[in-house]
Amino acid sequence: MTRTTIEVTINGVRYRHEVEPRLLLVHYIRDVVGLTGTHIGCETSLCGACTVLLNGAAVKSCTLFAVQADGAEITTIEGLGEEGRLHPIQEGFWMKHGLQCGYCTPGMILAAYQLLQRYPDPTEAQIRHGIEGNLCRCTGYQHIVEAVRYAAEKLRSQKA
Amino acid sequence: MAKKFVGERVPRVEDQRLITGRSQYVDDIVRPRMVYAAIVRSIYAHARLKEINVEAARRAPGVIAVFTGEDVREAIGPVPVASQLPDLKIPRHPVLAVEKVRYVGEPVAVVVAEDRYQARDAVDLIEVEYEPLEAVVDPERAIAEGAPILHEEFGTNVAFVWQLSGGDIERAFREAEVVVSQRMVNQRVIPVAMEPRGVVAEYHPGEGQLTVWTSTQIPHLLRTQLAAMLGLAENRVRVIAPEVGGGFGSKLNVYAEEALVGYLAMRLGRPVKWIETRRENFLSTIHGRGQIAEVEAAVKRDGTVLGLRYKIIQDVGAYHQLLTPAIPTLTGLMATGPYKIPNLHVQVIGAFTNKMATDAYRGAGRPEATYMLERMMDRIARELGLDPAEVRMRNFPQPDEFPFPTASGLAYDSGNYPQALRRALELVGYEQLRQEQQVLRQQGRYLGIGISTYVEICAIGPSPALPFGGWESATVRVEPTGKVTVLSGASPHGQGQETSFAQIVADELGVGLSDVRVIHGDTAIVQYGIGTFGSRATAVGGTAVYGAVQKVKEKATRLAAHLLGEENVANVAFEAGQFFVKDRPERRLTFQDVALAAYLAKSLPPGMEPGLEASYFFEPSNFTFPFGAHIAVVEVDPETGDVHFRRYVAVDDCGRVINPMLVDGQVHGGIVQALGQALLEEAVYDENGQLLTGELTDYAIPKATDVPWLETDRTETPSPVNPLGVKGVGEAGTIAATPAIVNAVVDALAPLGIRHLDMPLRPEKIWRAIRGA
Fold first, then answer.
1. Chain B partners of A32 at a C-beta cutoff of 8 Å?
2. Where is the 2Fe-2S ferredoxin-type domain (chain A) (predicted)?
């Protein structure tokens, strides 16, 4: 199969690879680049586990081809923060028990990232609407709502 | 000793790796020279396998091997069933179908290729010639005369008939003033853990060892079974449950693919990965529920329930999985719920159907029992013109009647059922709501209040009651630096026991939470264990940890006495991580001092072994019986049939609480899965056995916007079954909430004369019911 060269910046690091045109972005991130924090839950863009930020917008990386990301800047969960230097959203999920098995969590956190950019002080309904495209089977969502509220407050206080 | 951690809302210690994307689930595992497997699955629900043409697939780019059922039938033993029932019919369940297929999604062949795209391409090149047979998907039809037979050797689709009796059911119905009966369908649902199943297997020929990474709740039980299926010595099989992305019972099993991928790794001499697609997860990971029941209650006019008669048909599916036949027996055991109902008869008929097997799904038989009984309590109240809360109160045993013997032969450990219901009624403002309901009804608005009081059977369980052991194991290993490693035989996958077990140990040893590390899920590291299911990990596994840490403390205290020059160990105190002689408190040894001394072993008391480590296998004397009361308040829109939640109040009693934040999380998640079954979810097969709800597009699990704010509260009645007093909480929400929600909807529609609706209560069904009323 013919291969195409793409250049993608992920979490600030520039990558250049030859890929099959049919390679899904999520497989590129996971199998080619080796960042496995982005998960696959359905490959049909319904569950949101594979959510990443593509040029700042939350997208489901299972329904994009890697070639479509040529030239893009991507942020995955690994680029958001790390132990000892957590992003306020990650901290919110930790403090408010916004995760159990953790499988949906990276996608959920990045969906929350976009939501908080749109609504810095979101209502409960805005939070629920903002994460509606991300499924979680463990938490019942309530602690996720609290985690996002926690992050919103922290982000606002950092700006102030 | 003062408790610093137990009982506190301690944030989880396992979260750092999960929130930063550094955890390792099965699909994250990469081994050198690894190849990928993909599975050809039956497109027919019932058919003879005529010919499988694999030549094109074998020649496809990157393909390494293709195997069919005939190729592996001698090499891999059948998929096991652990449950035993009298006269249980156990069909041979091959890992790849031989001669016949019996459900859509049954594995027929496997392809191995260099990458996952090539493997999936090659699957499409395999031509399977089928001779379609008539399928049977309705369990009632399956056991009726003239139905197509799945397993010819039995001559029937009846997999088992199981009965349970207590008291004198005939007399109860003779003495009844009123008989209330209802047919109810507890629909098939699909667990849908967010992480599909997956297996990586690697064989090391020099050591003769097969390592299997798999998304499982039961690594040790699986190891024993895999060794048998593959003809390996058990100590040459290592099973690792890495990070597991949700289970809910669906990974409490031994699946064909787990043995198949292990076989491929041995046969091909290369590590093999297989990751289930979501479509495969719908088709060929176990389903839950699937009961049709006729329920009859013998009651007195004051609401006292004298007896219950259940005739249940359990939809088995095409084959048994590990615990399939056991699930409805749990329904039978819990059939009298939290009530004093002295007479009971339960009959369960298991029916083979051309569908995926049912097995343990969160609650596993108990949600079915609670649903039927709680619907019946509301039906009885309606029939007799009594308040549903009052009918429940009238039938509760009182707190001084515990241990409470049930007609099903159990002894409930402890409980205060009236208190939990009273609390829930207060929180929701029940009296006021009932008044408001009257007012709204006059305005043509449909407000409904649904009560569910429940008791569940947890901490599963005493070994005599289980096909495999019901105990759990723990090792507490104090390292020379005083750091503590806990090896637990439980296999948590989101429940948070790395934290709650650390809380227990840190309090007992007076060390910090970060000084304790809990390891689980690797059979080469952890002593044999049973696993995580049946709300058992804390009540049984946590008690094993507690038992092991007592042994460690006892030895450390003896060593401390020796080091402090005190002959009488009873004079040595251990407080806040320090040992001292009670009347000479000025000289103290830290826990770390004693740990180091145990390993340096310069001076040990006579007969004491060096080191500081203990194992404990805890065998519970009984199950535990958590309980509670949930109340849903909904308004039904008569124009659209939509159900709008106004309140949801949950009062749960799971005994002593180690970490209230984790308990809330379990309750929330359980309630929302129950909400899914009550309002949204249903596995729909068409008459040919095609799964119509085989993707997330067609099968609706709750989204964030479907869920109301959940108001949780607790009462705390310690269990006498274990020294921690804990009962377990993993399934409470799923058990309690389904009938609370359905009762609320039916209550809302009561003015229209609607007495019962089968789940799921989607708007269309409600709308039609309103139109038809």
1. none
2. 4-80
User: Is residue A131 exposed (0-12), middle (13-18) or buried (19+ Cβ within 10 Å)?
Assistant: buried
Residue B496 is encoded by which pair of tokens? Answer: 């948070």
All domains of chain A, ordered by start, with CATH?
Answer: 4-79 (3.10.20.30), 82-159 (1.10.150.120)
Cα angle at A108 between A106 and A110, to 5 degrees? 70
Tokens of B263: 């076989």
The C-alpha atoms of residue B601 and residue B595 are separated, in whole angstroms, by 10
B5: burial class by Cβ within 10 Å (0-12, 13-18, 19+)?
buried
φ/ψ (deg, to 5) at A99: -150, 150
Nearest CB to B246; choose among A46, A76, A137:
A137
Q: How far is CA A113 from CA A79, A118, A140, B69, B753, in A?
A: 12, 9, 20, 48, 49
- pLDDT tens digit sequence for A65-117: 999 999 999 999 999 998 889 999 999 999 999 999 999 999 999 999 999 99
Sequence-distant (≥ 6) Cβ neighbours of residue B152 within 8 angstroms: none
Measured between alpha carbons, how far is B571 from B557 in angstroms, rounded to an integer? 10
- Alpha helix positions (H), B512-640: 543-563, 591-600
DSSP B660: H
Tell me the C-alpha to C-alpha distance, in Å, between residue B400 and each of B138, B151, B397, B415.
46, 51, 8, 9
* Rounded distance between C-alpha atoms, residue B90 and residue B151, angstroms: 10
The pLDDT tens digits of the residues spanning A12-62 come to 999 999 999 999 999 999 999 999 999 999 999 999 999 999 999 999 999
Domains and CATH numbers, chain B: 33-133+195-245+251-284 (3.90.1170.50), 134-189+287-395 (3.30.365.10), 462-618 (3.30.365.10)
Contact across the interface for B11 and A102, Cβ inside 8 Å: no
- DSSP string covering B162-222: EEEEES-HHHHHHH-SEEEEEEEEEEEE----SSPPEEEEEEETTTTEEEEEE--S-HHHH
Mutate to test the interface with B, among A97, A134, A143, A145 (most CBs of B within 10 A): A97
Mutate to test the interface with A, among B17, B19, B491, B675 (most CBs of A within 10 A): B19
The amino acid at B442: Q
Is the previous residue joined to B403 through a cis bond, with omega within 30 degrees of 0?
yes
> What's the predicted TM-score (pTM) here?
0.98
DSSP state of B632: E
Contact partners, residue B503, CB within 8 Å, separation at least 6: B5, B6, B8, B10, B513, B658, B659
User: B12, A94: Cβ pair inside 8 Å?
Assistant: yes
Pairs across A and B, CB distance < 8 A: 176
